[in-house]
Amino acid sequence: MIKHTVLAAVLFAQSVAAIAAEAPPLRYDIYVRGAFNGWGTDNVLAWQGKGIYQADILVSPGNHAFKIGSKDWAAEWVANPAASVGIKLGDAYALATEAGPEDYLFTKKTTTFRFRVDVSDPKRPVLTVTQVETPAPAAATDPHVGAGATATLTFPTWDGKEESARFSVRDPQAPLRSYAHSTTMQLRDPGPQATTYEEDAALPVVRSGNLAFDALFALAGHEMKLDSVKEIRDGNYNGGAAIPCDCFETGEKWHYVWTRDLSYAADLGLAMLDPQRVRNSLLFKLSGWRAGVTKAPQVAGSPDGLQIVQDTGSGGSWPVSTDRITWAFAAEEVLKTLPAGERAAFATTALQALANTIENDRIAAFDKTTGLYTGEESFLDWRDQTYAKWITDDLASMASSKALSTNVGHYKALTLAAQLAREQGDKTRATRYEGWARDLKRAINTHLWLDDAGMYSSLTAAHFDGAPLHKFDWLGQSLAIVTGVADGARAQKILASYPHGPMGAPVIWPQQQDLPVYHNRAMWPFVTAYGLRAAIAGGNVAVADAAYDTLMRGAALNMSNMENLEWLSGQPLLLDEAHPNLIGPVINSKRQLWSVGAYLGMVIRDVFGVSTTREGVEVKPFVTAKLRGGVFAAGDSIALYNLRLQGRAVNVKLRLPPVPAAGTSGYYAVERILVDGKPAGSSIPWSALDAHSDIEVQLGKLVDGATAIRRVSADPYAETPTVFGPREPRIDGVARAGAATTVTIVPADRQTGITYNVYRDGKLVASNLNAGTWTDRENSAAACYAAEAQYTSSGNRSHHSVPRCAGASVAIAATDPRVQASVAIAPGNARFAEAHLANWGRPADRLDVRAVRVPQAGDYAVQVRYHNGANQINLGISGGVKWLALKDESGRIVAQGVVQLPHARIEKANTPTVYSTPLAARLKANVAYRIEMSDFYNMSYLDSNRSFSAAGGVDGPSNRFDVYGVRLLRTNGTK
């Protein structure tokens, strides 16, 4: 036996030595990166020798997207660069060593998979995935043994069962408690069904008489501390190496600072609790120009270019997406909580960054016709989740649409900038921004309000249509209420009209078919928290109670403040074995920063009513009869201790009225406020608070409040008309015959119970049609048409079809002798069949198209026909952003402005060209015009992106694309 053991050891040592002697063929580490590990670098493929890299990974149930990639994504390997592949166990897949869509691995139970990549031929790596035995977990011990106090929360499930969460402490009288927390619900990620966490002396604690409520607040504080880091990292930046920053990272699976995540998290709760860390994180999301960047003459702002960073994303980032201005929500809150000395310095920087951002967004993303800003919906930034199916092939159309949430963000940025300018003595700038804010508020209410729905449209259709869509989102509606964009009457309609499922409000309405859960079919706690804030502003107790329930349930059953949950079941993962492509949420992180901020804010700002102003503290608690008779039924008061505000430790005690009778509705008015025993109003100046102060609030009579709430319910596994919208149709043809135009509507599928609506130039002109032809008798030779499907049973509507225009067009190819450019013509090839101007767009590049004539006078849309393959359509910072000018024979400018040329799909062969966003111009017939295109800027020009791994990063700014020509399309004016 001893000899065998010695022999085995010798053989093992020899094997290890042999592997070590064989140099690995790759000069870098390679990782399995996917939804199961937050696309991070937790799972390195270890060198095994003989060409093999291998990793064993425990994967939870789901249909998980993944890729093989290096730390900095310089290497990216997928099975098929043109389409996603569902990986089958044991099959060998030759990997393409180029960027492409994610591959998928499905498992219906937690399983250990062995990912093996054979790189014997480094140019043709081969992937094999197999299942290996998962070690049995150690027997779990009861975490509540020896507890001095316990509490259990029980929740009904969608399918008639129950799930429960249990909480315990050993010493309920301890000044700082240690909690044990367990759940019966199957967790999203592999791991134990119990956890422990402690209260922190640097953070507030709650004593409510309800151990579970106290524990969940402590959990949120604990997770805030876990998200408080000294360094951040993302595989796309700094070669994947850590970046020093006393910042908030975004979650367990997201280790970077993202502008919108940070901003909403700070606004909801974090700015009050750690203003310095929020400030640091906000400063990290500011950047000036990179060294060597030459600013185009049209670019506005201070010479250093300091502005808010739009993170990587759709079509190459800004200005396809313009919600970087959500930064203002966090900045406003942190300015209320920073000590005076620190506030002044940050206020100066904030105004400079806001002004530069506002001025350039006004140039690149403002539509003067509607008075609205263009750009993607805020946070709903997965194109296929919330937009028409065709939009992924035409991101310029997404770029030209206008979104409610983003426009409300611009309103916030304008009002904050105006306030700071006035504080800093810049009355001219303050007046300018105040005027822009007033005009924007009016435009939102004019163009996005849908009276028949009692809500704002989430977004408009794109250029050549422009109609507000019957699509709705809870964040946009809520932000409109809390910022004051919506007046009282509209706020009441919104709160009564937005649908709530059994577990809470979905982030979009209606849901979209054929898509997994993420933004679609999901609840996000931070959005629920804004819904709660809106409900309190509107005094709607039914909507507020629904939000309280959603936030407490999610944290309790998941033992964490999760990124998102399926909306009809409340599950962190809805496993649909019959439809693996619909499983989701497709990614879901614990301790997601804005979810953590949401829960902390729910307790501090909403229940206890504590918020800060520049002058002091406001106290306006919102305790409903349901909360008093349920969560707070055990005692006659609840208390928040050790809330630290501007160097003061504040304790807040709410004295509660008697428990109401079952079924009672309403919220309690404030009867009396005492500060250190002295009467006070709801607005308490800083001077009234000592280093240690006690605020006591006596709640009095019950106020009825509004109770209107729209309830919906459905089977979470069925795509029913009750909660889904139909698929969008298409217009197959627009034919002119005399003064009439015939439009042919083609349905997306064979579903019954659907009628169709037709829009002309963004206005509804026909409704309740059957599929087929419809004739427009109006003499509209230059009209553009779009169609919309509608369920007759629910009224839920689809996105609009691709608009089809009847107007004539003038097209000029890049090879036309009238085209003069600073780059040479490239011949066509198998992928790009046409000759074109290749890789045009360096800052010094120019493009002129001379002697351009149109046969008829009228309104025209000038567009560049192009292809931008700098990155994938969902990634990057290299969207084309250029300045286009149209001049007449005398050189007078007829029209000018920014045009966008976002990333576009690349096919193996015959990659299609696409069109830029349009420049509107009114032209005369048979007059020679000249089109000139020159540089503007994109996010790759900013210093913060100099270490980005892909186009526009380490190799310098990228604002280049292939040009195939220009088009002038006659319209009735672009929308």
TrEMBL record:
Signal peptide extent: 1-20
Entry-linked InterPro entries: 6-hairpin_glycosidase_sf, 6hp_glycosidase-like_sf, MGH1-like_GH
Stored Gene3D superfamilies: 1.50.10.10
Keyword Zinc among record annotations: no
Residue ranges of domain Mannosylglycerate hydrolase MGH1-like glycoside hydrolase in the record: 256-553
Pfam entry (one): MGH1-like_GH
Entry keywords, A to Z: Signal
Protein's GO biological process: carbohydrate metabolic process
UniProt name for this protein: Esterase
Organism encoding this protein: Massilia cellulosiltytica
